[in-house]
C-alpha cells in the first residue's frame, strides 16, 4: 500500500514540474498582458517616464514665500507630507489647494501646480 501511494506522489510531482515549465515559456510580455491603469503605467515607463504618477519623494528647495516649492497635481487639492528635519521621526501632513501657497510649520512654502494626468 505504501509503495502505491509513493508511486502516485512521484507521478503527480513529475507532472506538475513539467507542466509548470512549459507554462512559463509561453507567458506573454507584461506590457501586452496588462490592462487598464497598469498598462498605462507600463507604457509610460517604457517611453522613458520613470515616475508617471508623481509618487516619488520630491527634494525640497529653498521654499520662500516669493518662490515656493512646486508640487505637481492633476487635481484641485493634494495631501502633502513634509519631513521638517532630517532627524525627525514624524511627518507633518497638510492639504494644498490650487492657487493658495501654504507654509509648513518648519517655515518652507509649498504651492500646487497643475500637471496633466497620465
UniProtKB/TrEMBL annotation:
What the entry lists under InterPro entries is as follows:
Cyt_c_oxidase_su5b, Cyt_c_oxidase_su5b_sf
Q: What is this protein called?
A: Putative mitochondrial cytochrome oxidase polypeptide Vb
Coiled-coil residues:
none
Q: Which PANTHER family match?
A: CYTOCHROME C OXIDASE SUBUNIT 5B, ISOFORM A-RELATED, CYTOCHROME C OXIDASE SUBUNIT 5B, MITOCHONDRIAL
Gene Ontology biological process terms, A to Z = mitochondrial electron transport, cytochrome c to oxygen
GO MF terms here are: metal ion binding
**One Pfam family in the UniProt entry:** COX5B
Keywords attached to this entry: Metal-binding, Zinc
Which organism does this record belong to?
Answer: Triatoma infestans (Assassin bug)
Q: Name one GO cellular component term.
A: respiratory chain complex IV
Residues the entry annotates as binding Zn(2+): 82, 84, 104, 106
| The keyword Metal-binding belongs to this UniProt entry's keyword annotation | yes
